[in-house]
Amino acid sequence: MKAGAAVFAARQSSRGSSPSCATSARLEYIDGQAVASIVYRRRKHVINLFVTQGAAYENHTAKLQTMQGYNIRRWTAQGLEFFAISDINGEELQEFVEKFDAALNPPKGA
Asked: What CATH number does the domain containing 40 carry?
């Protein structure tokens, strides 16, 4: 798993004008598969970001799903699968996803 890339992106996405701030990270095992878990805060809300190994050739844009009052954004990039889960509204969660993705894919020369 490219967990190092995800953790680096987590650090980067908490800088600059982003109101989200990473507060903790850990490695979980779900059904025997390693899953990076990064916790962010945005004002009084928590955003849980889970990162796991995905298909190397797949890249999918974030899709919104709502379950039991929580918004979930799921997407894939660079061989990783991401799940952002929070009680913030869907637009704010999408903004978080966009900033995280931008940190994961910085412009050339940055």
From this structure: 3.30.200.100
